[in-house]
Design goal:
The chain is mainly alpha-helical. It has 10 helices and 4 strands, in the order H-H-H-H-H-E-H-E-H-H-E-H-E-H.
């Protein structure tokens, strides 16, 4: 969709700095406003409705093995999800992919107006679960999110993918 070629790292860097994506992920912009601003600032010549359809489809599926791992953990542990997301991806994840049904509590940044690594979003999760930080094991792929959780007293681990989560759970004697 971009008007000029860019490397994946250039796109990711620009995406992470994009104020419109950040605002949309915090629930501060409607989908229509997000599309209009994003398309304008990124110089993308596309109808907003088509962009939103494409954008919604970027949330594709669970990682292989995730559903099975969570199903195995559910009888022994309370499971919660804390996601930096937006209304379009969250809706797709909930209604079509079935992600939220795998968790007792599922919180998206757009619902609470906070995003990781802001310590306040972890406190929202702890409050909803009615647990203390030391009762939680947290996994995330981004170091700043892991550091923020750790600073609150949560056992937090940086992982990439389902197998790393499984390996970490085994090391922690939780599997």
């Amino acid at each position: 969709m971009l008007p000029a070629p860019a490397s994946p790292s250039e796109i990711a860097d620009r995406w992470n700095r994009c104020p419109h994506s950040q605002a949309f992920g915090l629930g501060k912009l409607s989908a229509d406003d997000y599309a209009a601003r994003f398309l304008r600032d990124w110089g993308i010549d596309l109808e907003p409705s088509r962009f939103l359809r494409e954008y919604r489809s970027w949330s594709r599926s669970l990682l292989p093995g995730a559903r099975e791992l969570l199903a195995g953990l559910r009888p022994r542990y309370r499971l919660a999800a804390l996601s930096n997301s937006n209304e379009l991806h969250w809706d797709r994840n909930s209604t079509e992919i079935g992600v939220t049904e795998l968790f007792e509590v599922a919180i998206s940044s757009h619902q609470v107006g906070l995003s990781k690594p802001d310590p306040a979003i972890y406190k929202v999760a702890l409050d909803r679960l009615q647990v203390s930080p030391d009762a939680v094991v947290f996994f995330d792929d981004l170091k700043p999110n892991v550091v923020a959780a750790s600073e609150l007293g949560i056992r937090a681990f940086q992982v990439e993918g389902v197998e790393e989560v499984r390996e970490c759970l085994a090391r922690e004697h939780l599997l």
